[in-house]
Design brief:
The chain contains 18 helices and 22 strands. With 609 residues, the chain is an alpha+beta fold. The strands form 5 sheets. It has an 8-stranded mixed beta sheet. A 5-stranded mixed β-barrel has the order 1-2-3-5-4. It has a 5-stranded antiparallel beta sheet with strand order 12-13-16-14-15.
């Protein structure tokens, strides 16, 4: 028999009854029952109940075991009596009668228990991550992550994609976030950067003629953490294709994502393809977000024209519209019967959390066979306008209508957040309802106005091909703000349940158009040549039309696992301050190391002493 095990802790079944076996694992749970000691032994594969009787030569050794000791048990497999069979456990029909024990590793007092799913502070969980990873839920999540990655890789290969690895040490590039810089010992004063994404390299792979590339790519960005974004590093399914249109990219990606989610759905539903294509402007209007959660049935309406009507006396909204702002209406189906506290709580939320003046509202009911409006602002709105509001927003008697007013971006943000909150408060679900509802957001604006710097900036991805006549684009006057701000690009995001999984684009593969695009955003040609010279030079030697995207692996797993924080699906995450509490990173280095790199540390004043 093998020194440590003949079977795993998840392997034994009724067919093994009578066999002498050996298993190894961690003491998950101990129970004393009238002289009998029961031990649930756990390994990566499952759990097996083991028992020792008082007259067994192994009794004393088993009696000395504590939680998380690593042990090897040898004994005979017996059937568990009918009333003790555990149907929730794969090995629940059998148990092992222990006659030999070997302690492989002792465990001290535990800073957090492995048995059970008690909630513990983040700092404790991350400092003792090796213990946290033994807990059932997170252990399953990490195994799920591995299986999801294997499924993604298999599906990509089946579609004719080839996996390549791109460099980790590269040049700094202005891609929207801070770089992690790596000093060069051989080139004093110069730095490598860890890639924010393999963007330029995957485009160069297309120029090199490899056509359909993918990798499970590590990406590094020095940005603040949040629930759906890990500080420091993350992984994405990076892909690029040559001689493709936007629809070709969608046709390649949709089956992969739909298939992976379906494989691990466990009965949950996924909307069928092709996934909806929603223009950015439409998404911002209807959902108040470019990451819409389509499980929510609420559709926002623009009612600026109604409040501009001369007959309307509600001055707050009239003034907003007169000053170039907008008014958005958020339907609340069935909310007219809600108590006053429902409306007051939403109004307080808008003021406190969204920093808005509030949420005006109207409730609708039937009076004398007609639709009538009630509420604080209804009396300022004549009946014909009330009926137009109801018609435009699709509300009826028994419903309510909330309002968000202000500049277009601010009004959309409040309306979008209110849409989600109202939908959750009322328990609304779209029909048909899907547990995972995907869509594509398309036609992103190429440029946006930077109010702080009073200039035009890229709004999304600077490497995208503008959706504009190429000859006309090259002739654009950089001062023609109206035309420029109306240009869209072949840029697209794939979104699921209100979470952006990836951004992508059909790339700008023409050097002349790229230089012009950056010139419009205020980057002179010499700066573009210096920053992106490698890619521009490659394009000058024959570049195919190409495009791609990069769905985030961490977010995919987070959705499938039903978690709300990436930490729960990442093996060794950092905390909110980008610290690895277990390994002690970031850490100080020696003066010798600094001298080798020709670096001197200058701390901020507050950090000295």
């Amino acid at each position: 028999m093998h020194r440590y095990r003949s079977h795993t802790c998840g392997e034994l079944r009724a067919s093994h009854v009578g066999s002498r076996v050996r298993i190894s694992g961690w003491v998950h749970r101990r129970r004393d029952h009238g002289g009998l000691i029961f031990i649930d032994l756990r390994d990566n594969y499952g759990l097996t109940q083991c028992v020792v009787e008082p007259d067994s030569p192994a009794f004393k050794a088993v009696d000395g075991l504590r939680s998380e000791f690593v042990v090897t048990f040898t004994g005979r497999v017996v059937a568990r009596p009918g009333d003790t069979v555990n149907k929730d456990l794969a090995t629940g029909e059998v148990e092992i009668r222990i006659d030999e024990v070997a302690v492989q590793g002792e465990a001290g007092d535990l800073p957090l228990p492995v048995f059970g799913e008690q909630d513990y502070p983040e700092d404790v969980r991350l400092k003792y991550r090796f213990l946290d990873l033994r807990r059932d839920r997170i252990h399953r999540n990490i195994l799920l992550r591995s299986n999801v990655i294997s499924s993604l890789r298999r599906r990509m290969i089946d579609q004719g994609f080839t996996e390549f690895q791109t460099p980790i040490l590269t040049a700094s590039s202005p891609e929207g976030a801070r770089d992690f810089l790596v000093p060069s010992r051989l080139h004093p004063g110069k730095f490598y950067a860890l890639p924010q994404a393999p963007q330029q390299f995957k485009q160069l792979i297309m120029v090199a003629g490899f056509d359909r590339y993918f990798q499970i790519a590590p990406c590094f960005r020095d940005e603040d953490a949040r629930a759906d974004r890990s500080p420091g590093e993350f992984y994405q399914l990076d892909l690029e294709m040559s001689f493709v249109t936007q629809e070709d990219v969608f046709a390649a990606v949709e089956p992969v994502l739909h298939g992976v989610f379906q494989e691990f759905a466990n009965g949950r539903t996924i909307n069928p393809g092709p996934f909806p294509r929603i223009p950015y402007a439409e998404s911002m209007l209807k959902y108040g977000s470019d990451k819409p959660d389509l499980r929510n049935p609420i559709i926002i309406a623009d009612v600026s024209a109604e409040f501009a009507d001369a007959s309307v006396e509600f001055k707050a909204f009239k003034t907003v519209v007169a000053q170039g702002g907008v008014v958005r209406a958020i339907p609340a189906p069935g909310a007219a019967s809600q108590p006053r506290s429902f409306f007051d709580k939403l109004n307080d939320w808008a003021r406190s959390e969204m920093k808005a003046p509030g949420l005006g509202y109207i409730t609708f009911e039937e009076e004398g066979g007609k639709l009538a409006g009630k509420g604080p602002i209804a009396k300022f709105i004549p009946e014909p306008v009330l009926l137009r509001l109801a018609s435009k927003a699709g509300v009826k008697a028994g419903d309510a209508l909330f309002f968000s007013a202000g500049k277009a971006d601010a009004a959309a943000k409040l309306a979008g957040a209110a849409r989600i909150r109202i939908g959750n408060e009322l328990g609304l679900k779209a029909s048909p309802y899907y547990d995972f509802h995907f869509c594509w957001i398309v036609d992103f604006p190429m440029y946006e106005w930077n109010e702080d710097d009073k200039k035009i900036d890229f709004s999304h991805n600077p490497f995208s091909m503008p959706n504009f006549d190429h000859d006309a684009f090259l002739k654009l006057d950089p001062k023609d703000d109206k035309t420029i701000l109306g240009i869209t690009a072949f840029q697209y995001d794939i979104v699921c349940n209100g979470i952006e999984l990836s951004s992508g684009a059909i790339r700008n593969h023409r050097p002349d158009i790229m230089i012009k695009a950056f010139d419009i955003a205020g980057y002179p040609a010499d700066v573009v040549e210096r920053k992106f010279g490698g890619m521009l030079n490659a394009f000058r030697f024959g570049a195919p039309p190409h495009g791609g995207t990069a769905p985030g692996v961490d977010r995919i797993v987070m959705l499938i696992a039903g978690e709300e924080n990436l930490r729960e699906v990442t093996m060794f995450p950092m905390n909110q301050r980008a610290e690895d509490l277990m390994m002690g990173a970031p850490s100080d280095v020696t003066l010798k190391q600094l001298r080798e790199l020709n670096i001197r540390v200058v701390l901020p004043e507050a950090s000295k002493g």
